[in-house]
Amino acid sequence: MREMELSDNLRNSESVTRRPLAVLVDENKSRFLLDLFSEPDFHSHFRIFVLDLLRIRRSYRHKLFRFRERLARRDNVDLERRSEARTVLDVCSRIKARQIVSVDNKLELLTTIVELAGPDQIQCSVVQMGSNPVHRSREARLGARKVPVTMFSWGNRELDEYVRAGTVPEKIQPVGSLKFGLARRNGALSGLGRTKTWDICLVSMFASTRIPHHNPSDSVRYEQMTMPAMVSILKPIVLRHQLKVVVALKAGQGVIVNASDEEEIDFYKSQFGSLVELSNSAVPYASYAAASASRLVIARNSGLLSEFLGSDSRVLYVNPTPFEKFEAPSEIPFRLSQPSESELEAAIFRLLEMSEETYDAHVRPIKSRFCVNSDRSIELLNDQLTGLSHRLERTQGWRLRSS
Known about the structure:
- Strand 6, helix 9 and strand 7 form a beta-alpha-beta unit.
- Helices cover 44% and strands 18% of the residues.
- Mean pLDDT is 83; it is low at 6-15.
- It starts with a strand and ends in an 11-residue tail after the last helix.
- The protein has 403 residues and is an alpha/beta fold.
- The radius of gyration is 23 Å and the shape is elongated.
- The relative contact order is 0.13.
- Helix 5 crosses helix 6 and helix 6 packs across helix 7.
């Protein structure tokens, strides 16, 4: 656990009463929360404490709570979640934090935390990290019911997704993509509204084939074949029309650089040579910069496409595999499933040559379903968390229940 440092102007301000806020992080993809809560907006109202779940799981307190849960004869899944929840609550009690924020794949853990502490004693929120609903299959174990957690989503479509999974957060508040908001603040979206550098931005969905899988699932196998299949039909079109293409590498989409990045870069160099440029994965939000500077963004069903839906960088959903789980939602007007080279070529030039009015007429009706305007996503989240904090102040301080 550590408290985020303040900027000098906030540190010297004595008139601001800042309330403790616990931010849970563990997996690489949830690390964007560190960037998010480093923004000065939040430090004006909150003292931000970062709780690393990986360290919490190794702590003595977690082992102690785990031992107590085992004595209560919990099953293994319930035991792990409850002992982890009790450890988080123990830390929050010591820092006097009554608000906890994490990413959306922590819904089970946060629900258990609220159930242990009491819904009027602590407030838990999740922020939507991406558009992939696969993790919601785990949430079905919570049962078909409302759970006492607030979700800050990209758009209105999330409510339908959670209802379909059988578990619905108590409140779903669309604020737009927070990663898109961070990219804007970091200057990565300077290409929007300007003359474009590239014709096409290809969003990488590369999956390593060097990582061994015992009895790989259909999902793993089709992940591995996605980009080879995509490149095989796109490359002849690029060559024939001399299109300017940039590849938004996976490492530039918020994924921590790892050993497979070199394999990803080698793949595109071997397939395209000097025909395309590769985004600089060492630069924050490089994929957003590449997409904003392109006339057309192409990907399989990707969160980046939802974020750019309705901007002047047009989007085309392409699933080059027969795997149905990779299909774009049916409401998306520009989508292809296992297209031939000629079908992809026709779709690309239809979008590149389409008037602004026609394109806008297609995407405007569904824009807010997938991602509301993200220009003020960070400000909206801060306002919502501050409002929840004021409501908590009306109740007495809490302490962990013994049961």
